[in-house]
Specification:
The complex is a heterotrimer of chains A (about 270), B (about 220) and C (about 100). By secondary structure, chain A is mainly α. Helix content of chain A is about 45%, strand content about 10%. The radius of gyration of chain A is 21 Å and the shape is globular. The chains are: A mainly alpha (about 270), B mainly alpha (about 220), C mainly beta (about 100).
Chain lengths: ~270, ~220, ~100
């Protein structure tokens, strides 16, 4: 069907373009300049404002039971915040479920502070100064206490292993009108969408770099965004329906991706475009 | 070690040893009862149904998979597809292509460029009454002027210049946009016509962007 | 009162380096919402920094300053243990004052 010489001509044309200084050099410098801009942004990360607010929320007596979250067990015992994020998601016997940070926080808000589950989950993602998300602030604070800790998500418990396998199956699940799966954008190395570099989440080095940079202050959002938000917004762009906050699928996929990042030093809250 | 004579004491030691062996076998058997890959796939599908909610135009049926989606998910990537499976899929997808009734495949390249630049459409926050874009630049290079292009797909710079503008090439290009998997099973490229993302006129405009000698793609 | 600022003040030699993160929408007044209505301007207009009772920085800001602004400046004439106080007032009359100890 296709003229078989077209392939060779295409190769020659592409080689000629690759050697042409103009457009390609401009293109490469655009990507480099964006990387430099991101480096410069590291100082004065507004995420610190969320960390401050989160620390206050953790220590304040709130909810119908007027209790603080300081007895909440995030995996290393009640009240221990240091280093917990690097081991999440994990299986919690009291809930008999694998939980990520957000689902565990909802659990503590419900069981310790007496919130109804719908109230605890009513503002998962902030939308301006007058519609702040308490959970995002708590996530900022708790993750900041894992800075410098090496990712060590365990799959020893059968439910943890199952969550990992379910997350992996989801990663390859093609669906929706665009036939997109996570793998469509995140299953290959060295690709980008427009000018945004895409990590290959099946490759350990890329997965490590990507996972340990969330949560992050997204300048374009003007908000601190968590990993739950990242998944929710990916699925929106994949043309899927809406991913439910702290749902089983969100935790399974997080387990898969977090475990792939094992061995990396956690480095968030970061700042992104 | 002396020969073991089954006294009462030795009998209980034996019983302990047997019990330990049984426990070990149970543990090994437990590993064997771990869910198979097929069971995991089924469980994942069921889990997704209860983990997503419908929003705007995105209903839960978007999680249901057609033959192509299910098969491509199972094999994870186009590279891992067995040849016979690829051929079967391509044949079935080729049969879905509906060419324009008036036989004209090319529209207006300027309209095509706007469609290529537009990344909206079909998301749950998009207005379903507005036309979708094709978002070509997310994955492809097209015009030399547009530097903000992706690399998930091959560059299309000079597409028409390389291939000419014969009726054959026009038909191939239209078909590729309509259903890319007719030519490349499990391609990452959306099936714009078959899945109702673009209208016939929109697809003609994108063909023009690629093939019209006046299009910047070919200059 | 509005959201607290995060202030860091460090002395090197005789110079104090101050870094302030402020939480503010900094709405320019040029944007329109989904219904096409203009979102009213809401931004910091006056920033003042004092140390030991003396003003060390005075700034008039406009809509060009971005959301959640990050301000850095240096000054001389203070010692470790002294306090730096930062205040801002916005166009709605809302205000915030926070202080930090120079470390």
């Amino acid at each position: 069907m296709i003229n078989r010489h077209a392939g060779i001509r295409a190769l020659m044309l592409w080689t000629a373009l690759a050697l042409a200084p103009g457009a390609i050099a401009q293109q490469k410098s655009a990507v480099d300049d964006i990387a430099r801009y991101r480096e410069l942004l590291q100082d004065g990360n507004p995420a610190e404002l969320w960390e401050l607010r989160g620390e206050t929320l953790w220590k304040t007596a709130r909810g119908p039971k007027k209790v603080s979250l300081e007895q909440c067990d995030l995996g290393k015992g009640p009240g221990v915040v240091k280093g917990v994020y690097a081991s999440l998601p994990k299986y919690f016997a009291d809930a008999d479920r694998v939980m990520d940070l957000e689902s565990r926080l909802v659990y503590c808000m419900v069981n310790l502070q007496g919130y109804a589950p719908t109230d605890a989950k009513k503002q998962p993602f902030g939308n301006g100064n007058d519609r702040k998300s308490d959970i995002e602030a708590l996530v900022a604070y708790i993750t900041s206490e894992s800075k410098g800790v090496v990712m060590n998500v365990s799959l020893a418990h059968p439910k943890e292993m199952e969550a990992y396998r379910l997350g992996k199956a989801m990663f390859f699940h093609r669906g929706g009108p665009h036939d997109f799966a996570c793998a469509t954008c995140h299953g290959d190395t060295g690709k980008r969408i427009r000018l945004q570099d895409l990590p290959n989440l099946l490759l350990q080095s890329d997965a490590q770099r990507a996972y340990t940079s969330w949560p992050a202050y997204r300048v374009s959002q003007g908000e601190l965004r968590s990993f739950q938000w990242r998944l929710y917004d990916c699925f929106r762009q994949q043309r899927f329906p809406e991913l439910e906050f702290t749902s089983d699928a969100s935790v399974a996929l997080t387990t898969f991706l977090a475990h792939n990042a094992n061995g990396a030093v956690f480095n968030a809250p970061a700042i992104k475009r | 070690m002396s020969v073991m004579i089954p006294t009462a004491k030795k009998k209980s030691a034996l019983a302990v040893a047997v019990a330990a062996l049984v426990a070990f076998l149970a543990l090994v058997a437990g590993c064997a009862t771990m869910l198979s890959d097929n069971d995991i796939a089924a469980k994942a599908t069921a889990m997704m149904k209860t983990s997503f909610r419908e929003s705007g135009q995105a209903k839960l049926d978007r999680l249901d998979q057609d033959d192509v989606q299910a098969t491509c998910s199972q094999y994870e990537s186009a590279q891992k597809l067995p040849k016979d499976v690829a051929e079967r899929l391509e044949k079935s997808q080729m049969a879905t292509i509906r060419y324009p009734a008036d036989g004209k495949m090319e529209g207006n390249w300027k309209a095509g460029e706007a469609i290529a630049q537009n990344g909206t459409g079909k998301q749950f926050n998009d207005d379903p009454s507005k036309p979708s874009g094709a978002n070509c630049y997310a994955c492809h290079q097209l015009t030399p002027q547009e530097l903000s292009f992706g690399t998930i797909g091959p560059p299309l710079l000079g597409y028409g210049k390389l291939r000419g503008n014969s009726p054959e090439i026009q038909k191939y290009t239209y078909g590729k946009i309509y259903n890319s998997q007719a030519f490349s099973a499990c391609s990452n490229m959306p099936r714009f016509g078959h899945n109702g993302i673009l209208t016939e006129q929109q697809m003609k405009d994108v063909v023009a962007l690629l093939l019209d000698p006046a299009s910047p793609v070919n200059k | 009162m509005a959201d607290p600022m995060k202030i860091r003040a460090t002395l090197t030699g005789d110079t104090v380096d101050v870094r302030v993160l402020m939480q503010h929408e900094m709405e320019t007044g040029q944007r329109k919402d989904a219904q096409g209505k203009t979102i009213p301007a809401w931004h910091i207009q006056q920033v003042t920094a004092t140390a030991n009772g003396k003003t060390v920085l005075s700034a008039q800001w406009g809509p060009a300053v971005s959301k959640n602004p990050f301000l850095t400046f240096k000054f001389r004439g203070a010692a470790k243990g002294d306090k730096v106080e930062i205040s801002w007032v916005d166009n709605r009359g809302d205000k915030r004052t926070d202080e930090a100890v120079i470390g």
